Amino acid sequence: MSSPEDRIIALIDMDCFFCQVESRDHPELKGQPLVVSQNNVVLAVSYEARALGVTRFIRSEEAKEKCPTVNIVNSPISHGKSDNTKYRMAGQEVIQVLKQHCPTIERASIDEAYLDITKLVDDRLETTLSSSEDLRTSLSNTFVVGYCGPSNDEIQRSQGLQRWLEEVFDDISDDQARRLAIAAVIVEELRREILQKCSFTCSAGISYNKVLAKLACGLHKPNKQTILSSAEVSELFTAVPVNKVRNLGGKIGKTLMENLNCNVMSDLMRFTLQDLLKVFDEKTADWLFNIARGVDNEPVTPRLICKSIAASKNFFGKAAITDLEGLKEWVGELAGDLVERLEQDFEDNNRRATTLTVCYHHLVEKKNVSQSKSCPMGPYNKERIAGIAFDIISRNMQMPIVFISLGTSKFVSVQKSGNFVSYFKKGVHSAKPMENLEIRKEGSQEEAREISKISREGNEEKSVEDRGSLIKLQEIFPDLNDIDHSVLALLPMELQDEAKLYIKNKESPKVNNAKSKMSSGGVRNGGNTIKNFVVKNSSAVEKSSMIRCSECDQMIQGDKFSEHCDFHVAQNLQKSINRSLGREVLGDSLKRNREKSSSPKSNKKTRSIDSYFSKFKNN
Ligand code: DCP
Ligand code: MG
Question: What family is this (predicted)?
Answer without folding.
Answer: Belongs to the DNA polymerase type-Y family.
